[in-house]
Amino acid sequence: MSEKRLTVQEYSDQDLIAGCLKGKELHQEVLYKRYFSFAMSVCIRYTKDRNEAMEIVNDSYMKVLDNLGDYDSSKSFKAWYSRILVNTSIDNYRRNLKHSSSVSIDNVENVEMEPEIDIELSVNDILKIFSQLPENYKVTFNLFEIEGYSHEEIGKLLGVTTSTSRSNLARAKKMVRDIYNKEFNSTARRHEAV
Amino acid sequence: MKQFDQIFREQAEKAFSTYNADDLAQEGWNSFVNRQKGRKRFAIIIPFWAKAASVAVLISVGSLFVYQTLRDDSTGELALKQESVSQPADNAQIPVVSDQTNHTDRLSSPEIAPSSASILLSAPEVKVAEVVIIRNEESDKVKIVTEQEYEVTEEENEGEVHIAENKIDEIVTKEIPSADIADEVPVDKKTSIIAGLSGMMSSIEDLMVNSPGVSVGFYVDRKLTRRLSVRPGLALAMHSYGSTNVSSGKVFMSSLTNTGAMTGSVDSYENQLDMVTLEVPVNLVYTILERGKSSLFVSAGVSTMVYLDQNFSSSFTNVYTEQKVDLASGNAYQETRTQDVSVESDEEAFSHVDYFGLTNLSAGYSLPLKKGGNMLIEPFVQLPVSDLTSFNVRIRYGGLSFKFRFGQESQQAK
Question: For B190-212, how does the pLDDT look when each residue is reduced to its tens digit (9 = 90+)?
C-alpha cells in the first residue's frame, strides 16, 4: 500500500517522530513544516533577517533528526525543539560575535519617564525594536524576558558572568523603552495631534 | 498599571506565539533537503569506512590469535652457536681471555678479540675470577662488564679449560610502542592538534617485564568524514625493561658455552634493557557514538619505530657438570662448576628502524573540557608485525593513553 502525501493534521507528533526515526522523508517534511512557524518565531528574535533565521531553523532541525533517538517521548516535543533552537541561535550569535556592531548607550535618547504602551505591537514592531539593540543586549533580553532563562543560565550560555548578564538586561530594557518611545510614542502623539 | 517591561514582554510573547511563516515553509524545506543531499554523500562513504575499519580490527585480532597459536614456546630461549675446545692445561692464572685459535694466548688487559671472545676457567682449587667479553655481531661496542668468582665443587686437578667462542645470536630487546590515538572529530574544524601522554607495560617473547614505559607525543587529527579521521603523529618513548629468573627454566638469553664433555645450563639470569624510541604512528579513527559533547571511538593503524638508543645488559649464572672417572681408583664422580657471565651491548642512535613494525589497536572515550578542547582517555594494545629492535625480538605492548585536543569549540548540548 503506497504512502500518500498527508496533510499536517493527519499525523500526531509521536507518529511523525516514529517515522523520522525510520528515516522516512515524508514524516520529516511534515514535522518540519508543522513546527516551522514556531521555529522561525524563536530564531527570528536572535537574527537580523528571515533568511538567517531560516538557516538556523535548518541547522536546528538537522540536530533534531540526528538526536531524535535521545528524545524523551514523555515530554513535549515543542519544548525539546525550542531548547535546540535557542542553543543553535546562541551558537550562531557567538560565531558572529566578532562581526556584530554595538551601539553605545550614550547615543540613545534618554527618557526620563517610563513610556506607556497604548498600542498593540506586532511582530514586525517588536523586531524593529530588537534590530536597534546591540546583539548581546538583544540576546540577553530574549533569553531572560521571553525564554525565561535565569541569569546564571544565560551566563553559561553566553560565556559571561551573572553580573554582566544582569547589567546587559538592564541596559537592554532601558534601550527598549527609549526606542519604543522614540519610534511609537512619537508616532502616536503625532496622530493624536492631527 | 502594569510596568512597561511587563507589558512589552506580554505583547512580545503574544506576537511571537501567533507568528506565521508558513509562506516560507516550502522554501525552508527545499533548502534543508539540498543540504541533506550533501550530507548523504558522506553517509554513503561512512558505512564503507566503517566496514573497512571493522575488517582491519578483525584481521588484527585474527593475526594475534594465529600468532599465539603458532608461536613456539621455547622462543624465549636464545640459541647460541658454540664451539668448544678443551685440553688439559696447567694451573692457570685468572682471569684470562684467549682467542679460539690460540688457546695459550693470554691477554693482559680485557681487550676485545676481533671476532669473538673466549672464557677460560682456571684450576678448581683456585677461586677463579672470570672476565667475560662478549661481542654482538652487529655492534662494535662490547666491553668487559664484570669479574666474578666461582668455586668448583670437586677437587680435581683441572687445568685450563678453554672455551671457545661464544656468539650471541639474539639479544632480546624491547621496543617502545607509543600510544595510539583516536578521538572525537571536531565539527567546526577539519584539523586539530593533540598532545598525549601514555603509560604502558610490555611482554617480550614469553616473559613479562617489571618496569613500565612512558611516551609523550604530538598528533595531528585530520577529519575525512564526520566520523572518520586520520591521525599521524610523532612520539618519544622511554623504556627500561628488566627481567629475572631465579631458577632454571625458560631463559631470556643463554650464554652457555660448549665445554666438551661438560653439560651446562643457565641457573639464573638478570637482564636489563633501556631504550629510547621515536615512534611515528599513523592511525584511522572512527567515532562510533556521539552523545552531546562526548564520543566513543575506536582506532587502528601501524607505527614505525626509530631507535635512538638501545642499551642491553645482562648477567648469567651458568652451571656446568661433567661425569668423570678416577683412573686410579676407578670411581666415577661428577664435577660441577659455576660460571658468571655478563653482557653489555649498546646500539648507536638511528642504527635500526622498524618500518610499520607495530599494529596499533585502541578504543577510547572523549570528554569535553570546560575551558575548551577535549580530554581523550584511550586504552590501547600494540602487537608486533615482525621482529623488533636490533636484537630481533617480538614485543607486545598494552597501556593507557591520556590526550588533550587543543582549541576545539565545544558543541552546544541540546
Answer: 788 999 999 988 887 666 555 67
Residue B223: which of B49, B358, B375 has the closest Cα? Answer: B49
In the block, cell 565545544 appears at B410
Residue A99: how many other CB atoms lie within 10 Å: 7
Nearest Cα to Cα of residue B5 among A69, A169, A21: A169
Q: Do A54 and B28 touch (CB under 8 A)?
A: yes
d(CA B386, CA B355): 10
For residue B32, the SS3 value is helix
Cβ contacts of B172 within 8 Å, gap of 6 or more: B78, B204, B205, B252, B253, B271, B273, B312, B391, B393
Burial, A160: exposed, middle or buried (Cβ in 10 Å; 0-12, 13-18, 19+)? middle
∠ CA A149-A126-A144, nearest 5°, is 10
How many angstroms separate the Cα of B26 from the Cα of each of A6, A16, B21? 15, 18, 10
Task: Report the alpha-carbon distance of residue A79 to residue A93 in Å, rounded.
Answer: 21
Helix, strand, coil: what percent of chain B each, to 5?
15, 45, 40
Q: Which residues contact A155 (CB under 8 A, 6 or more apart)?
A: A161, A162, A164, A165
Q: For the segment B327-356, what is each residue's pLDDT rounded down to a tens digit?
A: 778 888 777 777 777 777 777 778 788 888
Q: Which of A33, A57, A84 sits opposite B414 (nearest CB)?
A: A84
Question: For an interface test with A, which of B27, B32, B371 has the most A Cβ atoms less than 10 Å from its Cβ?
Answer: B32
Residues with Cβ within 8 Å of A62's Cβ and at least 6 positions away in sequence, in order, are B32, B35, B36, B39
